[in-house]
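ingest -> validate -> predict -> emit
validate: passed (alphabet ok, no gaps, 189 aa)
predict: started
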Amino acid sequence: MRRIAPERADLLAIVAEVFREHGYEGASLALIGAATRLGKGSLYHFFPGGKEEMARAVIAHIDGWFEDNVFAPLRDSPDPRGGIEHMIEATDSYFRSGRRVCLIGAFALDESRDLFADQIRSYFGRWVVHLAGALERSGHRPGEASELAEEAVAAIQGALTLARAANDLDVFSRALRRLRLRLGLPAKT
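emit:
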């Protein structure tokens, strides 16, 4: 029976999980091949640049999701508070209420950081800039909005790490509840 070739987007999701579990350095082609059920030749067909190209493609895929679901609503929503609300909901959904590590954040912390520095910097920088813009449009002074945006993104990233370290997913949920209040949104019941 002939095997149907997987879609690149499906492969990216699988490869991303291998990177999340093993890090960039630990994610060998053997592990990636086992997870995707593809041999090295097939992997190189999809990703001629090897593991580095896979990681860049995964980062770009994640970045695209955040552009559509977090950055654009923050930037383009006529109701800035609604855009901020959407950011929190989308972030909670993407990170599966703290069950999923931020892969771009993980890459920022490991040996691979320098390989992907521009992509990492762009991702976090746009998040802070677009959140600061929404906060300004909702009434915060520019300097205050920038500091609050930086604090919010740091709180999300820190809560992901702490939830994983403590093996307590409620850490992430509690952090998002506090963040809602800090950003001037009503508390969720």
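Residues 56-182 form a domain with the Tetracycline Repressor; domain 2 fold (CATH 1.10.357.10).
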